[in-house]
Amino acid sequence: MLIFGFKVQDLNSPQRKVYVTVATPTGHVHTSYGPENGVGKPSINKNFADTGTTDPEELASLAVDALFDVWRKKERGGYSNLLIEPVVIETSLTPDQMKDPKVTIRHFESIATATPRPPHESARVPFGLRQTFIRQTVAGAPTTSGAPVGARVDRRSATLTGEPVYFRPNGEQYRPRDLGGHHDVALLRTMRTAGIFVRLHGKPGTGKTALAEAAFSRDLITLNGHGDMAVSHFVGSYLPQNDGTFKWADGPLTRAMKEGRPLFVDEITRIPSEVLAILYAVIDGRGTLSLDDKPDEPTVTAKPGFYVLCGYNPEGMGVRQLDDALVSRFAIGVEVTTDMAAARAMGVPDKILKVASNLATKDAEDREKGGPGVWVPQMRELLLALKIASTPAGEKFAASVLVGQCPRPEDLSTISDVASNVYGQPISPLALGGQV
User: CA-to-CA distance for 310 and 331, rounded, in angstroms?
Assistant: First the structure.
């Protein structure tokens, strides 16, 4: 016999309640909540007591609907929700026992959280149920709980064909990619667990931030670097209050250390070297930070889960070379490039992709001759083109927008010519015409 189930954790709830929805082969779907250890009297939602069907696919869909309803209700109430994997349990419960919602739900909670599980019972995570939940448009939520775990690509054959799908905090999808024979999201989570720091480098829009957000989702704290940054931008400072006093506010580095969260330092090569020195004691094994502007506070010690990764464009204007001391601490360097196959899988029109591909060829040819290269649209521009092409404005309008995004005036005529050749008609940057 099978039980379909999901759990939702209220992160802001001091009771640490787990919300569960269970679909049983007897045609019943139940929802309840209780402490995360599964002990306690569950509260039953009678709205989903009897479905009138025993079809497994229909039951799975109804279980998703039940969870979706609970999710949205809690979200509207201001809670921060964490989705714990959809689970199917092979159980020894009899059909008569499954008719009792309290027995079924307690059984689900105990098996889904038990380690190790009884030999005659097991739980597994089906991709189909996860995808059903994704189709309900619950976006931006982590799909796993607990410590990050690494996974080999060859153990997850679906990884490179679009499964699973991760979400960024803004709701955009992220499709995992191969990274040195591993699943990129899982690898970053594994490096976090191991305390090995990663630097992501590549052209703007290739997906450095997207990868960091997909790996750590709402847990991630992001700091955007610029040339005028001071140490206070990392550690915090005293801020003026309405009553004329000053109150200390922790900076993103201090918060990440105190809360055991990952910190993504974007555009790190734009930050002055003397400011970046604040990271040395933090990521060299000591994991400590002294707040010089707040001498009354003891040294901050990083909590488990704290992690730092950085991103930068090595060819950008106004960038600085990373000091050897930082390069050695960010031991793993990963070049992030645009994945055209992923863009195609996400629905970017073929002609838009052909424009990008042809420009990439021209860029490579020009660089081989010693030239500066040609601007090539990256994932960010391609996804924007997809979004525009999906509106009534249409694909040709999206192509004109793509051409107009070129930041180098000297490349505009080349970009326009390539796009025009692909579309068989003039494609130029947008400009207002006469009255219509």
Answer: 11
Task: Please list, residue by residue across 30-45, b when 16 or more beta carbons sit within 10 angstroms of its beta carbon and e when fewer do.
Answer: bbbbbebebebebeeb
What's the CA gap between 416 and 404, in Å, rounded?
A: 9
**In what helix (H) or strand (E) does residue 103 lie, and over which residues does it extend?**
helix 101-113
Secondary structure element (H or E) that encloses residue 124, with its range: strand 122-124
CATH of the domain at 237: 3.40.50.300
Q: Which residues of 158-172 are buried (b: 16+ CB within 10 A; e: fewer)?
A: ebbeeebbbbbbeee
How far is the C-alpha of 350 from the C-alpha of 371, rounded, in Å?
28
**What's the pLDDT score for residue 18?**
58
CA distance 207 to 235: 27
State how many domains the chain has: 3
> CB 242: neighbour CB atoms within 10 A?
5
Q: Which amino acid is at 283?
A: I
Task: Identify any residues that bridge with 223 across adjacent strands, giving them in sequence order.
Answer: 265
DSSP type of residue 399 = H
pLDDT computed for residue 244 by the predictor: 85
Domain assignment present for residue 127? The answer is: yes
Both 250 and 323 in one domain: the answer is yes
Which of 335, 365, 393 lies at the terminal end of a domain, its last residue? 335
3-state SS, residue 183: strand
| H or E element that contains 234 | helix 232-235
165 part of a folded domain = no
Q: What pTM did the predictor assign? A: 0.60
Q: Which two tokens stand for residue 134?
A: 């994704």
Q: Which residues pair with 90 in a beta bridge?
A: 2, 122
pLDDT along the chain (436 residues), means of 10: 61 57 75 56 51 71 70 63 62 74 71 52 57 47 33 34 60 79 83 89 91 88 92 90 87 92 94 90 83 81 91 78 86 90 85 94 92 91 92 93 93 94 94 86
pLDDT at 36: 52
Cis-peptide, bond into residue 169, ω within 30° of zero? no
Q: Which domain holds residue 383?
A: 340-423
Angstrom distance (rounded) from CA 55 to CA 27: 8
Q: Which residues pair with 124 in a beta bridge?
A: 88
Residue 386 has a pLDDT of: 92
Token readout for 152 is 């080999």
